[in-house]
Write a structure and sequence with these properties.
This protein is an alpha/beta fold and 405 residues long. It has 10 helices and 6 strands; from the N terminus they run ββααβαβαβαβααααα.
Length: 405
């Protein structure tokens, strides 16, 4: 296992906690929907995002004659078995996932996790239409032609409800009420078109050779190609981080030896050191971001197909050879990738501490921070596969030379 690189000693840290909440609406024919939003956005907008739930409930009853029960957890729903159980129960029926899109949404780890998890599951079941974003605030990331961020790219590809102006209208105004009616009508229309999810459904782009087994082979082949590439990418990221740590030490040595002009005063001298360091790590930080983005993109793209395989492993006894092989790959490789990722993320977390020292450090630190989020996005997909395969009772096969006593 690779060991962690040295980090500069005089760093300070700051923790940005952007918590989320989830809300489920349940009815007889529509099992419900999750409203995914950041708690901070709701508080800033004086609770309007949560009040949207009651407005939808009343409009749905008016439009269909059926009661739409609203279930709201008043405390934060942590990411764990409770949320997974809710998600799985929702996906077994016809459940909508409605993310409230703001710039803060994509910066929230929990919101990103909810979005990527729900979409991967929904796509693997052939019901990706159940994701219905509401664009609540102008979000510059969605204006990018080819977003590198997979969560942004996912929302960009979807048809969205535009509430950028409606959020300023009084909730009892005709304009706002018409907006609620349009949203409810769309939910009713989609519900009528989308049947119950099928465990045998194949995500888009899979099964082109004609059957479930060919879909499995395609996905396993994708895993076989991706896994060694991920390992190389993580190794490259680690080497780049070592270069950045070495640059920090070199600049500190030059300053101590008097090779840098530090005669203008303490603050100016420190700024000169930081500016030089920022210049040196600018290239490596971009490379780390690019490598992390490739990993996240591939993991998210493989997610629906792998979930089809995992679902087969959960429900089929005995499973096909390729399903068993895929389960062995997941159980064997993901823990080893996790070890490398932990080291890389520790360095990334240490980098975030220097962002507050000077704005000259913001660009490279922002790249590294974004890279860590991409790695998190990808690893959470992989670890969900591992969790579900392990829950079937399968165990990691022993590897000669690695598991020998």
């Amino acid at each position: 296992m690779i060991s962690g690189p040295p980090v500069p000693a005089e760093l300070t840290s700051c923790d940005l906690n952007n918590s989320t909440a989830s809300l489920a609406l349940v009815t007889e024919q529509v099992s419900g929907f999750f409203l995914s939003y950041t708690r901070r956005d709701n508080e800033y907008d004086h609770g309007r995002i949560l009040r949207l739930a009651g407005l939808i409930e009343r409009e749905y009853t008016m439009a269909t004659g059926r009661k739409l029960d609203v279930f709201i957890d008043k405390t934060h729903i942590a990411w764990g078995d409770d949320w997974r159980d809710r998600l799985n129960r929702a996906l077994n029926g016809t459940a909508f996932f409605i993310p409230i899109i703001t710039p803060g949404y994509f910066r929230s780890r929990e919101c990103r996790r909810e979005l990527l998890t729900f979409f991967g599951n929904a796509r693997s079941l052939g019901v990706q239409e159940l994701v219905l974003p509401i664009l609540y605030v102008a979000t510059p990331e969605l204006e990018e032609e080819n977003p590198a961020d997979e969560a942004v790219a996912l929302i960009k590809r979807m048809q969205r409800e535009d509430w950028r102006q409606l959020r300023f209208e009084a909730e009892e105004s005709p304009e706002h009420r018409k907006g609620i009616a349009r949203l409810v009508n769309r939910l009713v229309e989609i519900s009528a078109q989308v049947g119950p999810p099928s465990a045998a459904a194949q995500p888009d782009g899979l099964g082109d050779l004609g059957g479930p087994e060919s879909s499995t082979i395609d996905t396993v082949a994708g895993l076989e190609l991706a896994i060694p590439r991920w390992g190389r990418n993580f190794q490259s990221m680690y080497q780049l981080m070592e270069e950045m740590a070495a640059a920090s030490e070199e600049i500190a040595d030059q300053a101590q030896a008097g090779n840098l002009d530090l005669t203008s005063g303490a603050a100016v001298a420190k700024l000169a050191v930081l500016r030089r360091y920022a210049e040196i790590i600018s290239g490596p930080s971009q490379q780390i971001f690019d490598l992390a983005s490739v990993f996240a993109s591939e993991a998210i793209e493989l997610d629906p197909g792998v979930l089809v395989i995992v679902r087969n492993a959960e429900q089929t006894e005995p499973a096909t050879d390729f399903v068993e092989y895929a389960c062995e790959l997941i159980l064997t490789i993901i823990p080893r990738l996790r070890q490398n990722v932990d080291v890389i993320k520790r360095y990334g977390e240490s980098m975030s501490r220097i962002a507050g020292l000077s704005k000259v450090m913001h660009p490279p630190v922002a790249k590294v921070t974004a890279a860590m989020q991409r790695i998190t996005d990808g690893m959470e997909r992989l670890e969900e596969w591992q969790r579900r395969v392990s829950a079937t009772g399968r165990v990691r096969p022993k590897l000669p030379g690695l598991d020998d006593d």
